[in-house]
Design brief:
By secondary structure, this protein is α/β, with parallel strands linked by helices. Strands 3, 4, 5, 8, 9, 16 and 17 form a 7-stranded mixed β-sheet that branches. β10, α6 and β11 form a beta-alpha-beta unit. It is globular, with a radius of gyration of 21 Å. The model has no long low-confidence stretch (mean pLDDT about 95).
């Protein structure tokens, strides 16, 4: 176990580095290098990374799609990783240690939201609407796939004491994202007895959404790609599950009114019947948690109830989204984009983990040398159910 008594600050560190020339399949794009430590700003905090979470930000960063992350920060390299657990190693000289909620040596987890701190949204509004908002580890050059990283003080959250380093590193991005999707877009906020359809329910965002919905005494309905994944979702609180491989209504929607569209809609209605078999004919889906994108978006927009919410935070199957616009305006549905979370939302969600009310179900812990493989498995949808993490300094 590393403690602050071992504290040294080396000139260099091991990191997995992405460079524009190497963008492609994650198994090949991530290259281990020894690099200089990130510079510590006067208002920043140096963190010794113990473990890092694996999420789709790393896949997009490796692929360089839709953009190379170097496009956002202008460096010729990128160290990905937007989740971490670690130790507060050094506090920037301009920070007042008396007012901070942490001290050097504390065991912590990190959230990935960065904001300017000066605009009206950061001061009384919604920091995620700050014009300078960024995702640390994706839009900034130094993330968690390294022995050290640098963050803003408000990114630091208390580490739940009972969790291992890997468990603590695995959940913050997906939990805070799911929290905002379900609770951050008034008046379409989660309420008891509502029916919530969750795509990719056995993955990171899905497992967190299931637990948030269950804790609200609402009904989480999981959509998964196998019976095994469905059984896992039942074990963590889903009301029921649907295996999407039993249906054939995925992809970009055909032109509205065409014969192909009529055939397509007959397949979509079979999927809706499977939902009714769970919640009862005539009952409807109040909220759809969507992050698959191209393959599922038109179905999501159809099955949400009148006045319901389709909230999406990504598009892992493609960015070209399609929908029948009439189902949107005539049924007055809300199509809402959602991006990570504010500091308050991240703290609120983390508190439930500290209280043991939400658990990071960790599918597998990877060794440092297997970090590229972990991302490749995620990209190919071959990962185990639950969250993923890699040991860095453990």
């Amino acid at each position: 176990m590393i403690t602050i008594s071992d504290k040294t600050i080396p000139a260099q560190m091991l990191a997995y580095v992405l460079r524009p020339a190497h963008h492609g399949e994650p198994i090949n794009a991530f290259k281990e290098e020894r690099v200089d430590l990130p510079p510590l700003g006067a208002n920043e905090v140096l963190i010794k990374v113990m473990a890092a979470g694996i999420n789709y930000n790393g896949v997009w960063a490796a692929l360089g799609s839709p953009y190379s992350p170097t496009f956002f920060h202008g460096k010729n390299f990128h160290i990905a990783g937007s989740d971490a657990s670690g130790i507060v190693w050094k506090i920037g000289e301009a920070l007042d240690k008396k007012t901070l909620h942490f001290k050097e040596g504390d065991h912590i987890v990190l959230h990935c939201g960065q904001y300017c701190g000066h605009c009206v949204q950061c001061n009384g509004g919604d920091p995620m609407l700050c014009p300078y908002q960024k995702i640390w580890g994706y839009e900034t050059p130094y993330g968690s796939f390294a022995e050290f990283t640098v963050v803003k003080p408000y990114q630091i959250l208390p580490k739940p004491k009972e969790l291992s380093w890997a468990e603590a590193a695995s959940y913050t991005l997906v939990l805070a994202t799911a929290w905002r999707m379900l609770l951050g877009h008034y008046p379409h906020t989660l309420r008891s007895s509502q029916n919530v359809l969750i795509w990719g329910a056995s993955g990171g965002i899905g497992t967190m959404a299931i637990q948030i919905v269950k804790n609200a005494n609402a009904n989480p309905i999981a959509v998964v790609s196998s019976e095994e994944r469905g059984q896992f979702c039942l074990q963590i609180g889903a009301k029921s599950f649907i295996n999407r491989n039993n249906f054939d209504c995925w992809g970009i929607m055909p032109n509205v009114g065409s014969s192909d569209y009529l055939t397509y809609m007959s397949k979509v209605k079979k999927f809706k019947k499977a939902i009714w078999d769970i919640i009862g004919t005539g009952n409807e889906i109040d909220i759809v948690i969507e992050h698959v994108g191209e393959k599922t978006f038109p179905v999501s927009c159809y099955i949400a109830k009148k006045g319901g919410l389709v909230v999406y935070c990504g598009a892992t199957s493609g960015f070209n989204l399609s929908m029948d616009a009439a189902y949107g305006w005539m049924h007055q549905k809300r199509i809402q984009g959602s991006h990570f979370a504010s500091t308050l939302e991240a703290f609120s969600a983390n508190e439930l983990v500290c209280q043991g009310k939400i658990k990071p179900y960790l599918g597998k812990v990877y060794k440092w040398q297997d970090l590229p493989l972990a991302h490749q498995l995620m990209k190919d949808n071959q990962q185990l159910s639950g969250c993923m993490a890699v040991e860095v300094s453990v």
